[in-house]
Amino acid sequence: MQDIKSSISQMNALELSAQKNTIIHRLQAPVKIITTVIYLLIIISYGQGQVSRLIPCFFYPAVVMALGEIPFKTIAGRLLIALPFSLFAGISNLMFSRETAFILGGIAVTAGMVSFASIMLKTALCVTAVLILIATTDMNGLAYGMLSLRVPPVIVTQIMLTYRYIGVIAEEASVMRHAYLLRAPNEKGIRMKDMGAFLGQLIIRSFDRSERIYNAMKCRGYEGRIAYSDREKISLKGWAYITVTSVFFLLLRFVNVSALVGSLFL
Amino acid sequence: MHMSDALLSATVGVTMTAASAGAIGHSIRKITKFEMDEKKIPMMGVMGAFVFAAQMINFTIPVTGSSGHIGGGILLAALLGPYHALITIASVLLIQCLFFADGGLLALGCNIFNMGVLPCLVAYPLIFRPIVRKAMTKKRITAASVLAVVIGLQVGSLAVVLQTQASGITELPFLSFVALMQPIHLAIGAVEGLVTAAVLCFIYQMRSEILESAMRDSSVNGIPVKKVLVILSLAAVLTGGFLSAYASANPDGLEWSIAGVTGEAELEGDSGLHAMIAGIQEKAALLPDYAFKAESAENSMFGDAAETVGTSVSGIAGGLVTMAAAVLTGALISRLKKRRNTEAAA
Amino acid sequence: MLKIESISVTYPDGHKVLEHLDFHIEKGETVGIVGTNGAGKSTLLMSVVGILIPEEGRILVEGTEVCKKNLSEIRRRAGVVFQNPDDQLFMSNVYDDIAFGLRNYGDSEETVREKISGIAGVLGIEKLLQSHSHKLSGGEKRIAALASILVMEPSLVLFDEPTSFLDPKTRRKLMNFLKGLEVTKLIATHDLDMALEICDRVLVLKDGAVFAEGRAREILADEKLMDAAGLELPFCMQGIE
């Protein structure tokens, strides 16, 4: 992970995007969660090297990003960070499968190149799909979405509390880090030998904070369970959206759109 | 060592999601059955935020000059108890997956398993707890932390290798992958172990009651170590052996299971939807026969690459056109929306 | 309204925080508690709502004794506004936070909605309801935390440093609001000017006991007394040129 500032600004950008009010934002959270999972399953179901088959899947992010008015920059920035991980795994394919798959304009394209390309495409599609979800759904909606998808309330509470306090603890950590670096001008980061005291101090502060939060909860009648408002049921419109997108995904999966389009021209 | 969606097959993704969901479900039952310590709910939340923040703080590793950060599984288990720690880590991983696309939504099961279940429910009860329970001293805390983190990370990275192999997306041979992953994670583990030890020793010195109360956590005594080991080794054999054999024979797990469900090989074109589409294509006189023929050349090492042989030229050309169409559609919608928005504003 | 009868609180390490503390508040009064750091202000507030149970003496809120079996009732009647709103706004959005207490006391979602829209109107925070708590400014957080307490319609509100972290204008707004707020208030604070302006009565704590008690204008203006308590005069009385 990158340093505190850029992480927080990444979260801010997505949160800001999630506050908009478009046709995609207005969809119920569980509907978007289900659609995203189906899309991801479809994407990873493609085998190695099905590059041309994967390309039509770009329609989903292209259309949803446009409808949801998602800033391209936010997604692209993250994509650049995510791609190197797959690059590492993909490069092995370049090295280990050198059989010629086909010849294009006199250049031999190896099976490895093809599967490498497909891994990169898959990465791009999967990363985009997840970021689209969070860029059009605010975290609270997502929490209620999870509840209506029967995720145990204990887990949802944990996610919400963690999400709520990331900024607070990160701010605390950031102040401590500055205080450290101001007194250690020759260091770029915190020395490993000081990490015990640094993180230990942060943990003790966090424990104290959780004690105060607990007291604040007690004062308002908390008895071990956090109550949420009633679960939202998926509307007819929601089911319609899920059905339409799923059918579209399945069509892409089982019809070779690229070859079809290609054959129109050749 | 985040496992990512793109390297995952559907089968492995679903299997690991089920495994992690099971472990989390078990943890929830444990922490609610044994005097649900209601204080721990806010504590877990804040500690989740702590791990999140702590992972953003890089520290400089002496000599090498490189930087590292903590994973936090063992640290959390030592502070909160293993079940609470697992739930906390799982929440952190989910948030990271959503906001930073670390790993991905389908790979979340793998990642929770590798970075949560293995350290919290395996390395902690088997290594950390027995060492520290005998006597809580700084020496023991240090030894326990380093050992537990190193071993936890080793099994975790091995799990990444196994899951990747079982998915069959990369071509990296098992042995080379292991030879690459394990030493790197040995080094990372040693560093993280030392930092974890330093943090826990600091806490022990300042607030020993925090560690002591986690150690007293009565629910932990109920961890059936043998049962856990048997289940895990079974799972390892399953994923490592059966799944990888299955995955290499059927590079496409979902397709295979669809064929299994409908009782016919979907690519032969007999199934309803497929036949219908084929029919439409025939009528439109667009059907390039070879595109479908090539597709059924599966089961070879590069079954899917073989498909590209047949469709290479038309596929690539078509792919480019399709891509352009996707981008254009998006651009067009954006354009229209923008115009409508400005009109609405005016 | 609130009766505190000779309570003593000792920390686990043996340090006596409160020792035979005695005082009472009448309905509708606004009482300030001032004193040095560690004088026992926060401990006193926590004792009133039973987060800490004194080992000696007893506390009565509207005649009901603060003890284990009454805690639920006590906490419905007496609300605490914590010093740091980040500790109090733990839900991820403001609406759920204000709803937290109501839901715990079993109000239906419909009642919850009505009460929240009522309090949001009073405090002028309708626009903030769907915001994430961590996105609010310091002043907004303070008001949201206040709303989460006032929505439960307590008859006694305890404040722990209500003006800390606020810029001058926001502090002024909050003080004006507190002046107009018609419930019994107990305010622990270092902000002596605020105490002078909005409290009817002040209680000076020193070493866990009541050092002085009386009308705000008299006590806070007594330079000798304030000095003996480890405090000083409010700024507005210091005659700074």
From TrEMBL, chain A:
Transmembrane region(s): 29-47, 79-96, 102-135, 147-166, 239-265
Membrane topology term: Multi-pass membrane protein
Principal location listed in the UniProt entry: membrane
GO cellular component terms listed in the entry, alphabetical order: ATP-binding cassette (ABC) transporter complex
UniProt cross-references to InterPro entries, sorted A to Z: ABC/ECF_trnsptr_transmembrane, ECF_CbiQ, ECF_transporter_component
Subcellular location: Cell membrane
Keyword match Chloroplast: no
Keyword annotations: Cell membrane, Membrane, Transmembrane, Transmembrane helix
Pfam families associated with the record: CbiQ
Domain of life: Bacteria
Keyword Transmembrane helix belongs to the record: yes
GO biological process, one term: cobalt ion transport
Name listed for the protein in its UniProt record: Cobalt/nickel transport system permease protein
Source species: Anaerobium acetethylicum
Lineage: Bacteria, Bacillati, Bacillota, Clostridia, Lachnospirales
Automatic annotation (TrEMBL), chain B:
Main subcellular localisation: membrane
Transmembrane segments: 41-61, 73-99, 105-128, 140-164, 184-204, 225-247, 309-333
InterPro entries registered for this protein in UniProt: CbiM/NikMN, PDGLE_dom
Membrane disposition: Multi-pass membrane protein
Superkingdom of the organism of origin: Bacteria
Keyword field contains Signal: no
PDGLE domain span: 226-335
UniProt keywords, alphabetically: Cell membrane, Membrane, Transmembrane, Transmembrane helix, Transport
Location relative to the cell: Cell membrane
GO biological process entries: transition metal ion transport
Cellular component terms per the entry's GO annotation: plasma membrane
PANTHER family referenced in this protein's UniProt entry, alphabetically: METAL TRANSPORT PROTEIN HI_1621-RELATED
Name of the protein described by the UniProt record: Cobalt/nickel transport system permease protein
Taxonomic placement: Bacteria, Bacillati, Bacillota, Clostridia, Lachnospirales
TrEMBL record, chain C:
Keyword field: ATP-binding, Cell membrane, Membrane, Nucleotide-binding, Translocase, Transport
InterPro entries (UniProt xref): AAA+_ATPase, ABC_transporter-like_ATP-bd, ABC_transpr_CbiO/EcfA_su, ECF_ABC_transporter_ATP-bd, P-loop_NTPase
One MF term in the entry's GO annotations: ATPase-coupled transmembrane transporter activity
SMART domains per the UniProt record, alphabetical: AAA
The keyword ATP-binding is annotated on this UniProt entry: yes
TM segment ranges: none
PROSITE patterns linked: ABC_TRANSPORTER_2 (PS50893)
Entries under Pfam families matching the protein: ABC_tran
Entry annotated with the keyword Cell membrane: yes
Domain of life, source organism: Bacteria
Topology with respect to the bilayer: Peripheral membrane protein
Protein name: Cobalt/nickel transport system ATP-binding protein
